[in-house]
Amino acid sequence: MKMQKNHPSNNDARNYSLSGQLLLWLMICLFIILSISSIVSYSRAYHFANLAYDRALLRVVLALAEQVDVVNNQVVIDLPEIAKSMLEYDKDDYINYRISAPDGSLVVGEAGIRAPRRPLKSGAHLYYDDVMDSEKVRVVAYALPIINSDLKGDLLIQVTETRTKREKMALEIIEEMLIPQILIMLVTAFVIFLSIKRSLLPLNQLRNSVASRSHEDLSPIATNSAPQEIIPLLDEINGLMLKVKEGVDFQKAFVADASHQLRTPIAALQNQVELALREQVSDHVRHTLENIAASSHHLARLVQQLLTLARIEPSTKSNYAFEQVDLTRLVQEVTADWVPRALHNGIDLGFETDDSRALMVSGNAFMLKEMLSNLIDNAIRYTPHGGEVTVALSHQDDAVLLQVMDNGIGIAPEQRALVFNRFYRVEDSAGEGCGLGLAIVKEIVSAHHADISIQDGLPRHAPAGEVLYGANFTITFKAADA
Amino acid sequence: MRLLVVEDDKILAEGLIEALTQAGYAVDHAANGETANAFLQQTAYDLVVLDLGLPKIDGLEVLKRLRSRGDHAAVMILTAQDAIESRVKGLDLGADDYLIKPVNLTELEARVRALIRRGKMGTNTSLVCGDLVFNAADKRATCGEQDMLLSTRELALLEILMHKQNKVVSKEQVLESLCNWDDELGDNAVEVYIHRLRKKIAPANVQIRTIRGLGYLLENAKKSSQQ
Hints:
The structure holds two protein chains of two kinds.
Chain A: H1 18-66, E1 68-71, E2 74-77, H2 81-88, E3 95-100, E4 106-109, E5 125-132, E6 135-145, E7 154-162, H3 164-199, H4 201-211, H5 231-278, H6 283-312, E8 323-326, H7 327-344, E9 348-353, E10 360-363, H8 365-381, E11 388-396, E12 399-406, H9 437-447, E13 451-461, E14 467-478
Helix pairs in contact in A: 1-3, 5-6, 6-9, 7-8, 8-9
Chain B: E1 2-6, H1 10-22, E2 26-30, H2 33-42, E3 47-50, H3 59-68, E4 74-79, H4 84-92, E5 97-100, H5 105-121, E6 126-129, E7 132-135, E8 140-143, E9 146-147, H6 152-163, E10 168-170, H7 171-179, H8 187-201, E11 206-211, E12 215-220, H9 221-226
Parallel strand pairs in B: 1-2, 1-3, 3-4, 4-5
Antiparallel strand pairs in B: 6-7, 7-8, 8-9, 10-12, 11-12
């Protein structure tokens, strides 16, 4: 009947974590966004830095153009040696130049520099990338118009620069930008992680509240503190629980109704037997009638206990309210009620307590009375004439112990766990129990979050001289703070 | 004495009627609420044994109508309904006793006798146990024709024990009954009074048992020795 609380571990691989998924997708999106933004800002930064270097290179070209003249249709360059070396010297890069005549022929400079792919308008300049001696270079080409000369056309001035400092700068930009980007990403990831944890907190609380439920608690799950998103799910679950509860309630109501309906015919049967026993009949008929009377009593008791069981089971409509109960008083009253029965059976029924104060527990008086009645009834049934039954209350730390001890036939240790099962009866026992009394006791004990155990009870001297022990039912309650 | 049994179960009704007839009462039977209501309007019964779950008119309704007519017949509810609410409702509507099925015929007869006696004489009855008779009105205990010589405290103690005979009377209750005369009594004093009373009433075939941890119980000594 008890549901297994173990997690289905074989399914773990297939189950995924909502928070894990959320975190993963948010991180992927964040990564893409940050990558795009890095690439865009890098390319913008690189573009402007490149532009600055290009302009510097253009100034070199223009400075070179200043020194170029056409004399007698001859291109003349007046480039002092120092300027030349300054032009060609750079900390990181190699700078080369070439001046070409309008016909494209080399006037001065590096022959390896190729002409631009498209012709330039006169006076215009152009930046472009090229490869020279299998090395990437940046090129500035400038078309210098020839004036005051017969020579027509433009002089083409080209300056190339290797890309070392540009690449170095690119690396610097990347470094400068990437570190804060990564930091931002980490911080964001952390914040997202925290907010996911926080947002999913209600789910955990819900999980805990469901996990801590008894398997018999079919009341709906409270949706007022649940997040909107899972309310539809909870509503569905609650709807299902309601249907299950209706089914359970119907069954219990059926048992209760059936028990009620059985009472009248049982009463009729009992009364008829009683009347018959008042007549003068043969011993044989008397014996038969007495058996019928005993059976009908047994039947009446069984019906009564079925009804009690249907009533006390949790999640029924008639749930009993819990309150502070003076256990001392209750136990004394119930025990006193059983004294006439005990005396009738020749049993010394008594009460003992080690605490003069009233011991309080949180519980339902009706159920506790029913529980104790069943235990005393049981003890009287299984204790022979002349025996002893003692109901004891004691206080231990923050627990209250209620014991019902007898020196009757006792319960063998291997049967102690079984006697609480419904309809379980100790083999060839003399009592006329119907096997529900202790099941009722067990239900009530668990409804009170108490524990019940069976130990050896009071001693009894067997005719052969050895000492035998009866049963001792001990119920441990948590003491209520009075 | 005229009694009415209102019960729809034929065999149960037959059993009740037979037992009550044997006990010397004139018994009528109504198998449903409507008939019962009609009978009760025509005849003045001394006692009605009333089932609650009845065809046509519910037992509680029958009781309600009976009381609204100002009829003071004793009403004993005999039903399968054992819920406390139903019990309270029945007693509130004016039932004198509430029994739950199945009930032992001997007990039923005793309760019928008690209700009829109460109806006749009010509550001022003598309490009897064994050969001991206690008259609550003039606080007198007699055994046979002889007055028993008991002190006022012993009489007070006897009264509470007689009222609750065959039931446990707690030490606190005993103390309360004695404290009316003297408020400086300890547990020990209770035992002393019990001991004295026990000796004095022993000739009347009555005994006071000490019930461990709970109190005292007065019973017929002859009855208990038979068992």
